[in-house]
Every structure is written in C-alpha cells, then in structure tokens.
Amino acid sequence: MSYLELRALRKRFGKVTAVDGVSLTVERGELVSLLGPSGCGKTTLLRMVAGLETPDAGAVELDGEDVTALPPYERRMGMVFQAPALFPNLRVRDNVAFGLQVAGQGRVVVGERVRALLDMVGLAARADHFPHQLSSGEQQRVALVRALAVEPRVLLLDEPWAALDAPLRASLRTEIRRVQQRLKVTALFVTHDQEEALSLSDRVVVMNRGRIEEVGRPRDLYRTPRAAFTALFIGSATHLIGWVASPAEAIVAVGPLRLRSADAARHPAGTRVRLLIRAEAVRLLDAGEPEPAEGSWLTGALLVKTFRGPLTLLEVDVDGVVIRAEAGSDRVDALEAGTPLRLAIAAEACRILETLPGSGEAEAV
Q1: Which tens digits make up the pLDDT trace of 95-106?
Q2: Where in the chain is the domain with CATH 3.40.50.300?
Q3: Strands 340-345 and 296-308
Q4: Architecture in CATH of 236-359
Q5: What is the CATH number that goes with domain 4-228?
Q6: Which residues face 312 on adjacent strands?
C-alpha cells in the first residue's frame, strides 16, 4: 500500500474545473514534483492534500487513513509557501520552535531539535536574529526547517523560491534535496520550472488543464516521453508533423525533408505522425567532415542562436523547416545569421511521439 494516495480528486471554482479526477500514489520517503504551466491545477491539488481546499469529489489517504475530512492541523503536514511567512517579532530559534511548543514539547526537547535543524541548514549562527536581519534565501531555509521541526508526515512545498534569483534557487534546490533525503521525509513539490522538477525529484507528475498527462522518473520523461504534451513542455527540441513515406526505409516526410526515423518501420505508409528531435541529438558537422552513412544529414542556414553558457541553441532553416540544435558555445561563437550549416541526426533520435488523424503530406509546426 502506498504511503500517500490521491483518489479521483476533483475541484471546481465556479465554471472552471481546476482539478479533474486526479489519482496519484506517493511512496514513503519519496519526493514527487507536480510540474506544469500556470493554471494547470498543481497548487489546487497540493492545497487539497494539505486540507486547505475541500475536494468536490475524491479522497486523500495517508498511511491507510482517509484524511479527506480532517482539518489541516490534524493531518500533521508541513507546508512551505512562496513567501516564508515567518513571525517578524520572533527570533529565528523561536520561529522554528513555534510548532513544537504548540504541540507541548518540553523545553529541552525543543532546544535540541531546533539546534539540530538550524545546524543542518547552516543557520546555527543566525539563531538569535530576527527575520528582517536575514537574506531571502536564509528566510526560506528557516521556513523549511520550521515546517520540518514537527516531523510532518508529508512536506508540501508550493514554489517556495519562485521569487528568488536563479543562483539562489539552484542552491536551495540542492539544500532541500539533501535535507529531504537525510530525514527521509515524504514530499510533494509544486513548480512550473522543468529544471527544478527534473533535478530535484524521484518522480515528476506532468499536469495540464487539471489532469495528469504523465508520471515518471525525470530521465524517462526527458528521454522517452509518452505524452505529446510532456515532450512539448520539457526540454529544447524540434517538433514536426509529417507522414511515413517509406516504412521499409524508415523515412518520414516533413514538407520537402526526408528524415530517417527508427520508429517509422512500425507504421504503415501514409500514416500522419508527430516527431520529436531533441536539440542535443542534432550534431553540427565540421567543415570537410563526410556525411554519416546512417541517419539523416541536412543542409541549412543559421537563423538565430541563443547563448546558454557552455552550450548555445541554434535554430537552422532547412528548406523552410526550422531545426533546433545545440553546440558548444566556443565552437559557434563566431557564427552569424545566414551561415550555411550541415546537420546530422541519428535515426534513433528522430522519435515518433504519436500518430495523428488523416494521412499524406503535412506541414511542419
């Protein structure tokens, strides 16, 4: 039996269905992220788990107990929001101790627990400071250990560092994962940031329009997504619509292009399909380098490049079809718009995501 189980949860606000029959299981000690665009229902789902929203239908079970009708304070769940919501008149140690004191824990027990948690997140030296004397990142770390102090059955995190700068967010991601694994606490984490979800989670739940599109390990969702929405939402890739021109030769036609796809052999000729080609799977051929014997090789002109630190994203016009590729930034730094480029794509990297209604030639998207 799973530790946390959501059964067909549904929630409407007026005419809007925020969560539409969501079922999910979370194992004890697992960190699961709810990932999706704004308005997809992930925060509403988290609030129903916390008891802050009452579902119109469905149930929340925790360790075999139906907690759907219990108020938040009886569920023993810790929650960290975007704003740390610390008590401004209390010192750091007292903020962390608050829940333990309310629960009637003795002074010695409270003191030991608070010291251990603050030391765990590197804030022992800040114990006597007030919240306004802390940086934004330090305030969120205090909010985290305050939620953990009462040993919650589940830790719920609703985009807790969405308002922080990128380097600080990356640092806190590492911090929370380290603490979560050390304490073996079960956690649900809400984010719209794919990098956060993929780097932080044991499993990721991809949501869209109040429903779950796909659930899986980060590596699997990135490399072999089953749902078209997952592939479109996660990562940098080229998405094309075409048709199977030759199953025997594993060729898919996209406008004037003929691309080799290992998946094409499994579909009849004329089948309309949606393709996914990850940007990092498109290889930029050096000048004078021979075209590969396998897969596809294409010639086009550079449209635009986007610097991303060690890697640069290239958009290349190949006979009117835009192909995205990644290359080392030092290698392509001098390239200008209009530069001719040759690209190579392995047949295994040109994946058919789904078949589509109709048949025959279709346009790229």
Answers
A1: 999 989 988 888
A2: 4-228
A3: antiparallel
A4: Beta Barrel (2.40)
A5: 3.40.50.300
A6: 307, 327
